[in-house]
Design a protein that fits this description.
Elements: E1 2-5, E2 9-14, E3 19-25, E4 30-31, E5 47-48, E6 59-62, E7 65-68, E8 81-85, E9 89-95, H1 98-103, E10 108-117, E11 120-129, E12 135-137, E13 139-141, E14 144-146, E15 158-162, E16 167-170, E17 173-174, E18 177-178, E19 183-186, E20 191-193, E21 204-206, E22 213-218, E23 224-230, E24 234-238, E25 245-252, E26 271-273, E27 278-287
Antiparallel strand pairs: 1-2, 2-3, 3-4, 5-13, 6-7, 8-9, 9-10, 10-11, 11-27, 12-26, 13-25, 14-25, 15-20, 15-22, 16-19, 17-18, 21-24, 22-23, 23-27, 24-25
Length: 288
């Protein structure tokens, strides 16, 4: 386990998946990240790479060959190397190897950098194509934030406010695939009240959300976290059934559309990098 700490916050990470597993407000002692209870969801903040969500039949086709890929890709199940670390920053790195090439025929380098600055944690991603050919990939974040239901508080006491959206146009999931049809959730003053029922049909998936800043707050005690992101055009919000957390998920790519032909190069939202080209994206959480 890797640990970073300053005077405001302490963060802990697992080398398996380079996953954020704890973020503590040192002023209050409050844990911000979901505990990872496997009875509901054993994850905490996995990185989704080189796919986001599910593939149709868990397969894709590239250059006439069919490959299998688990939901959300393989990076969350791989051990990352620690490239560098200091008191306030750590950089993890994952490179292609013989195992990954069997089901993902590309050479790549993925760096994940975590940085503490006062009461903010910033997570930065860098994907580099180290192949001789074009690289096709998606990447997404999946941080789960703890919802406090102790001392008389309820899940329904929490809400998410959006900086630039009056309503949310969501794509329902059908057997983990994206429906072409959309549904609209109307917000009140750009705010979405949380409830267990909100996620009864799985995640809320958005491909045209305008907001780049979301605030998760408790309307009883004003506890809040400010969530910002850049270079992620798609977004998901999810929680497991009756579980006391909510995931705020910026994505560069989504699950397959329900009628997708499984061709990787034609996948909606897929990114392409030329040889030695890089892609960067980031998100940050500020604790108040």
């Amino acid at each position: 386990m890797i640990q970073l700490q300053n005077t405001k916050i302490k963060a802990c990470f697992n080398e398996l998946g380079a996953e954020l597993i704890s973020l503590i407000n040192l002023d209050t002692g409050k844990e911000i990240i979901w505990e990872g209870n496997p009875d509901f969801w054993g994850g905490q903040s996995p990185v989704l790479f080189p796919t986001v969500g599910a593939l149709k039949d868990d397969k894709y086709i590239f250059e006439g060959e069919t490959y299998e890929m688990p939901r959300h890709g393989f990076a969350r199940r791989k051990f990352f190397d620690v490239k560098s670390s200091s008191e306030n920053q750590v950089i993890f790195e994952l490179n292609s190897d013989e195992e990954t090439l069997k089901f993902y025929p590309f050479d790549f380098s993925l760096e994940i950098k975590y940085t503490l600055t006062e009461n903010k944690l910033t997570v930065s991603y860098n994907v580099k194509n180290t192949s001789e050919k074009e690289l096709y990939f998606s990447l997404g974040a999946h941080p789960g934030f703890a919802i406090d239901t102790k001392n008389g508080l309820k899940y329904d006491d929490y809400e998410i406010s959006f900086s630039d959206d009056e309503n949310l146009e969501i794509h329902p999931l059908i057997d983990n695939l994206i429906s072409k049809k959309t549904e609209t959730i109307n917000l009140e003053n750009k705010t979405l009240p949380l409830s267990y029922e909100l996620f009864s049909k799985d995640a809320l998936v958005m491909t045209n959300m305008k907001s780049k800043e979301l605030i998760l707050r408790n309307n009883q005690n004003n506890h809040k976290v400010i969530f910002t992101f850049s270079n992620f055009p798609y977004f998901g919000i999810w929680a497991a059934k009756n579980a006391d957390f909510v995931c705020l998920e910026p994505w560069q790519g989504i699950a397959d559309i329900e009628d997708h032909n499984q061709e990787l190069t034609q996948k909606f939202g897929i990114l392409k990098l030329e040889r030695n080209e890089e892609w960067k994206g980031d998100w940050a959480v500020e604790i108040e």
